[in-house]
Amino acid sequence: MLLAFALVGLMAACSREPSEEKLRAQATSPVANSRREVEEQKIRTLIERLTAVEGLEHVLTRFADSCAKPYNGSVFESNRSPYALTCSMQADVYFGVRGDITDVLPRVRAANIAAWGLQDDEGHDLPHAAGTITYALTYHRDHGRFPDGSLMSEPQLEAPGLRMDWDRPDLPLHYRIEDPTPCPEAGSGGIYQRCSTVPKTAMSMTAARARYGTVLSLSFDHWGSTAYHYFTVSRRK
């Protein structure tokens, strides 16, 4: 009997959910488009700033923007999202590195793309803090090992909503940048979806590695970024 009442309540709640047609209209509303333009411009500005760094050659940008209904778990879970719709952006940018990565990283710092890793009040990297450019340079200088021979953690750069990484096949923690996931076919689902690659026909990471020696990537991750949930529609109470 209790299960029956629970299912009736669930069905009533689901019936109050906005239709996909209404959600699609909200995802393409002037308010959503305005926020979309702001976030996209932020991303493209940072990409342009990194592209201008000496020693980096742009290979590929994969840009994705989508709006969808949040996953609310199963019937018996109580983790319903407060939103009926969320919109987020993500981008992955790939570069060929001309020369040594340790020569390019200080130029990345000078480009002021982000405050990479933990820093003090004066903007200096905290000693031994992973995620900073200082740590990355130390990692390469010491071949990925502490003085006692133990392995250092990965030297990727980290900032709110950003992550930068690069090929390190000859160091203890072997790593190679992988090809991006292809864009889904148009009309493959979701409330709203955009996905593009520039250029449309780009070289693979293997080909880029053969040309430049090292491939570097900048990822605009969801967490910590204003592009994550840049537009939302609250669920009706």
Q: How many alpha or pi helices? A: 6
- Give the overall shape, derived from the CA principal axes: globular
Order of helices and strands: HHHEEHHEEEHEE
- Approximately how much beta-strand content do the residues carry? 15-25%
Mean pLDDT: 88
Distance between the termini: 25 Å
Largest sheet: 7 strands, antiparallel
Proportion of residues in helical segments:
25-40%
Radius of gyration: 22 Å
Structural class: alpha+beta
Low-confidence segments, given as residue ranges, are 1-15
Number of strands: 7
Short description:
With 237 residues, the chain is of the alpha+beta class.
Description of the structure:
Strands 1, 2, 3, 4, 5, 6 and 7 form a seven-stranded antiparallel beta sheet that branches. 30% of the residues lie in helices and 23% in strands. 27% of the residues are buried. The protein has six helices and seven strands; from the N terminus they run αααββααβββαββ. Helix 4 (101-110) packs antiparallel against helix 5. It is globular and about 60 Å long. Mean pLDDT is 88; it is low at 1-15. The chain is α+β, with helices and mostly antiparallel strands.
Topology:
Layout: H1 2-15, H2 20-27, H3 30-51, E1 56-68, E2 83-97, H4 101-110, H5 133-141, E3 157-159, E4 162-166, E5 192-198, H6 205-212, E6 214-220, E7 231-234
Antiparallel strand pairs: 1-2, 1-5, 2-6, 2-7, 3-4, 4-6
Features:
23% strand; 237 residues; 30% helix; single chain; globular; alpha+beta; disordered N terminus
